[in-house]
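Design job #97: recover the sequence.
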């Protein structure tokens, strides 16, 4: 299932990028202003297969008292929760990028310059990383899978399904439950977060992203796109995938073939000549012909997604997150098009607010 998106929007339409800003808040209250003034930089990153994380670097030296401000104090202690908000001052409010739990403190005592403290926080979902699991799900939607995982983790799960499809067969291959669920959420445009009631009882939410984070941005090189570095490789590309499978119920062999044209993608004809004659053959065990057909299509789609990958950067955009789509222009016919974001990094420092990203071409 593809990530739900709106029509592509140029980033300059109705948005203000003059005064970048951030806020760091323990839930329900802001940090004191003198603490915020000591923040040197803020970095946030997300990825399809990893828990979100962010780092805050603060000045750790009080020149007046000649003492360390934070490494000996209680302002930042492991286990404390922090909310990170990023964006711009103006008519649009700051966006809450993540709610994290402080997991490490790294003081630095340099030979020259003032001491600093790096505070690292992981999305509070990291607490649900208990053990790696291999599990198969048959004829289940993503929300149904979330409920099953919640039961295994011993946590209540709240879902709000949106036009979901049941997968005939889906495998969780030696992954932490929460990491697998996080990956599923990103892939279908959902958010995954934890909400605790007054007693501290957690509820895991697996729900469609809010409207702000569904935005598909249109980025043009030389204007809104600061830099972009795509790589096209045909080394592992194929023109078709054939699945040779064993039908468990009927006790016979099944063959399913998916060809490149069936994906509906617009491959460059000049480039596709390099791999059109190549074929990938996979042997699996399936329930029926329909499952073999699906495996062949999915395998071919995964291979096709590896042909063009890219990294880039743009003005800081808190809504630009892993699992979203962007449309890139100004690069010529071969590299213009839709790209699916596989990871993003948001950096805030004296140099301003910048978002860099990794992506793959999907349109």
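Job complete. Output follows.
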């Amino acid at each position: 299932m593809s990530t739900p998106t709106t029509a592509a929007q140029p980033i300059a339409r109705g948005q203000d990028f003059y005064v970048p800003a951030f806020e760091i808040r323990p839930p329900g209250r802001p940090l004191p202003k003198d603490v915020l003034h000591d923040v040197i930089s803020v970095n946030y990153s997300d990825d399809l297969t990893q828990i979100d994380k962010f780092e805050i670097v603060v000045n750790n030296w009080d020149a007046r008292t000649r003492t360390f401000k934070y490494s000996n104090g209680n302002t930042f202690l492991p286990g404390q929760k922090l909310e990170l908000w990023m964006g711009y001052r103006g008519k649009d409010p700051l966006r809450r990028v993540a709610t994290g739990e402080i997991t490490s403190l790294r003081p630095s005592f340099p030979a020259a310059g003032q001491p600093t403290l790096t505070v690292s926080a992981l999305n509070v979902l990291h607490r649900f990383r208990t053990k790696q699991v291999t599990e198969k799900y048959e004829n289940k939607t993503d929300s149904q899978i979330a409920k099953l995982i919640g039961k295994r983790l011993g946590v209540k799960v709240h879902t709000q399904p949106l036009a979901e499809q049941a997968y005939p067969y889906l495998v969780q291959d030696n992954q932490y439950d929460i990491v697998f669920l996080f990956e599923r959420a990103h892939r279908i445009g959902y958010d995954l977060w934890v909400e605790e009631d007054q007693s501290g009882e957690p509820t895991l939410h697996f729900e469609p992203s809010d409207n702000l984070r569904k935005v598909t941005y249109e980025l043009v090189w030389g204007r809104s796109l600061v830099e972009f570095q795509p790589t096209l490789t045909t080394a592992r590309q194929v023109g078709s995938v054939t699945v040779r499978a064993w039908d468990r119920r009927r006790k016979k062999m099944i063959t399913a073939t998916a060809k490149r044209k069936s994906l509906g993608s617009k491959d460059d004809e000049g480039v596709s000549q390099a791999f059109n004659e190549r074929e990938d053959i996979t042997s699996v065990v399936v329930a029926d012909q329909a499952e073999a057909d699906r495996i062949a299509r999915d395998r071919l789609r995964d291979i096709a997604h590896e042909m063009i990958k890219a990294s880039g950067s743009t003005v800081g955009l808190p809504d630009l997150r892993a699992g979203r789509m962007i449309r890139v222009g100004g690069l010529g016919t071969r590299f213009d098009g839709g790209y699916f974001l596989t990871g993003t990094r948001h950096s805030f420092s004296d140099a301003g607010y910048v978002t860099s990203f990794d992506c793959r071409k999907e349109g």
